[in-house]
Amino acid sequence: MSESLEQSSRAAVHQRIIDVAGEEFRKQGIRSVRMDDLAGLLGISKRTLYEEFEDKEAVLTAVFNQQIQRMEALYAKNKEESANVLELVLRMFRLSLNEYAQTNPKYFEDMHRYPKFKECFEEGKIKHMQNIKVFLVQGMEQGIFRPDLNVELFVKVQQLIEEKGLKELQEQYGMYETFKATVLVSLRGISTEKGIQMIDDFMEEMRHKSE
């Protein structure tokens, strides 16, 4: 086999590992999926698997990075198609809801058991909070969010809610319903009449599509 073909074949194996692992992590949770399981599902030897990834945490990080790239591509696409910031936020909210609906809650619980990955995840959260600040300022300029909104305070409150206040709610109501309720309450609370009407119209459309 030529060097270029060998590299192409190895890249294909590498990508297959990420794809299969991502699907299994979402279905079963991270801890439930062993490297042995992945090798069996992929039909490859454990040696081949460990040649590509040193451990499960490395696989998890690769899965997460690919997910981030996919969401960034979707964000760019939806940004072009959105008339304003709130429409973009609601589009991304719907995509996130779909992700939660298809993901085992154990996936999110297990994330915090992997220190190296957790560091990568926390960096992603910081970037997310920075983006929220940009959205809020743009929404205020567009007359969608209230002009008296304290952006810094709002973002810090969201961080505290996410870090301290959601675990019990998630255990009782699930990730999907908790995320849906907290995001909608927050958005309505900071929106002008124009923004609230947009949210109501969006939720009505979602209800019709689910019937």
| Tally of helical segments | 10
Radius of gyration of CA atoms, rounded to a whole number: 20 Å
Sheet with most strands: none
CATH architectural label of the largest domain = Orthogonal Bundle
- CATH topological fold name of the largest domain: Tetracycline Repressor, domain 2
Could you give the distance between the termini? Answer: 54 Å
Share in β-strands: under 5%
The coarse overall form would be elongated
Tally the beta strands.
0
Q: What's the CATH class of the largest domain, please?
A: Mainly Alpha
Secondary-structure-derived class: mainly alpha
Low-confidence stretches: none
> Mean pLDDT score, rounded?
86
The sequence of SSEs as H and E is HHHHHHHHHH
Q: What oligomeric state is this? A: single chain
Précis, in short:
This protein is mainly alpha-helical. The protein is built from ten helices and no strands.
Secondary structure: elements and pairs:
Elements: H1 3-28, H2 35-42, H3 46-52, H4 56-81, H5 85-101, H6 105-111, H7 115-141, H8 151-165, H9 167-190, H10 193-210
Task: Report what the structure shows.
By secondary structure, the protein is mostly helical. The chain folds into two domains: 1-59, Arc Repressor Mutant, subunit A; 82-210, Tetracycline Repressor, domain 2. Helices cover 83% and strands 0% of the residues. It is built from ten helices and no strands. Helix 1 (3-28) packs across helix 4.
